[in-house]
Amino acid sequence: MTHAHSAVGAHARITTIAEDLLWLLLDDFAGNTTVDSITLHRVLAGAVLAELRSHDGAVPPRDPLLATVVAGHRRIVLDRAVDDLATGVRGPLLDRLCADHRVDRRTRRSFRFIPRTTWPTSDPAGKAELRHSLHSAVLDAHTPDTRTLALIGLLHTAGALPYQFPRWSRNTIDRRGRQICLDHPDFADIIAAVRHAVCRARADDYTVRYGF
């Protein structure tokens, strides 16, 4: 399995699947997320679970964020784990992307008083390299490694895989992403748990908004 590395400092840090996923879900120039918040939080939670699986259940993993997750969830049940993890992952991941100079944190005020923060890419070459692994699997039909497979599955579930291939039709990329997930079901249960969690959250949001 290959790993992405941060480019900062003499001792490069191995990045997590969740960090790479969030980076891919941030617009390169505008710096806003390309999916809604309900989807974002839950696919990031799914990425944390995928990372834990890639460690073969080692407790605790070297990564402190993963170690915290393991400490708080001695018995991880996928059906609820995505919901449990969804609220506390995004902030620490954004901090890491900023610390590694993969994105810039920019805050401006809308209507003179409402702060709005965006995270445009500050390392386009690194992001292009990350996307290259996706291109190899989706466009060139190369067998994806475990990390790339997780990214493809979660991006596909979020409806964001076509965003990584702007010159290709959405239907083509969605179809290829779906086929890769079928051919390599390593994370099928995690992806299903993410999808179900998104549906539950949307239903709850609808109930709150409209009282049904």
TrEMBL record:
Keyword Iron: no
GO molecular function, one term: phosphatidylinositol-4-phosphate binding
Main localization category: Golgi
Entry's localization field: Golgi apparatus membrane
Topology relative to the membrane: Peripheral membrane protein
Matches recorded under Pfam families: GPP34
Protein name per Swiss-Prot or TrEMBL: GPP34 family phosphoprotein
